[in-house]
Amino acid sequence: MAKLFVKQGDTVVVIAGKEKGKTAKVLEVSPKDNKVLLDGVNVVTKHQKPRSQQDKGGLIKKNAFMDASNVMVICPSCGKATRVGHKLVDGKNVRVCKHEGCGLSLDKDAHKIVKKQAKADKKAENVEQEAKTTKKTTAKKTTTNKTTTKKTSSAKETKAKTTKEVKVPKKSAKKSEEE
Q1: What is the model's pTM?
Q2: Rg (CA), the chain
Q3: How far is CA 176 from each of CA 107, 115, 168, 171, rounded to the nearest angstrom?
Q4: The three-state (H, E, C) secondary structure of the chain, written as one string
Q5: Is 100's pLDDT higher than 80?
Q6: 57: number of Cβ within 10 Å
Q7: Which of 50 and 77 is assigned the larger pLDDT?
Q8: Considering only CA atoms, which of 96, 39, 94 is closest in space to residue 71?
Q9: What is d(CA 96, CA 118) in angstroms, rounded to the nearest whole number?
């Protein structure tokens, strides 16, 4: 038996076929046939013959199964049609939303647990990013400090050299002006 990403009770949107764009609730799932039965979608008309005198014959409208590949699950937290991912939470395989900002559970029983875990993961990522940025800034500061100290020491040396050289030409310049 194949395992489906859709479960009974999920809200889905039809992404292909004549019913494209409609949203509905899943009434029944057939993993063996890879089909789903949706409420009010893919309604067919059946001709029914009366089997006894009490039965009525005629045209009967009935929901028909459609292929599971033609539907996409709608995430209850972000409200978007999403692909389904799987995550191991407390030893259970849980379906999760694949949207970047969401990542919450599609299963009602594990929704709270996954929500707490997602918050903890985001905090851990933020701490790692802050640690990386502080390392980069401290590394930049140390390199800039080294270069400034070198510049200041070389600047003092150049000032001393230039003052000595400048004093000599000034005296000669004054002597040449007097002559």
Answers
A1: 0.57
A2: 38
A3: 97, 88, 12, 9
A4: CCCCCCCCCCEEEECCCCCCCCEEEEEEEECCCCEEEECCCCEEEEEECCCCCCCCCEEEEEECEEEHHHEEEECCCCCCEECEEEEEECCEEEEEECCCCCCCECCCCCHHHHHHHHHHHHHHHHHHHHHHHHHHHHHHHHHHHHHHHHHHHHHHHHHHHHHHHHHHHHHHHHHHHHC
A5: no
A6: 10
A7: 50
A8: 39
A9: 11
Structure confidence by residue, pLDDT tens digits, 133-142: 877 666 655 5
Query: What is the residue type of 11?
Result: T
Closest by CA to 103, choosing from 85, 88, 90, is 85
> Which position has the token pair 């590394």?
139
- For residue 165, is pLDDT > 50? no
The number of residues in the chain equals 179
Where do we find the tokens 């050299």?
161
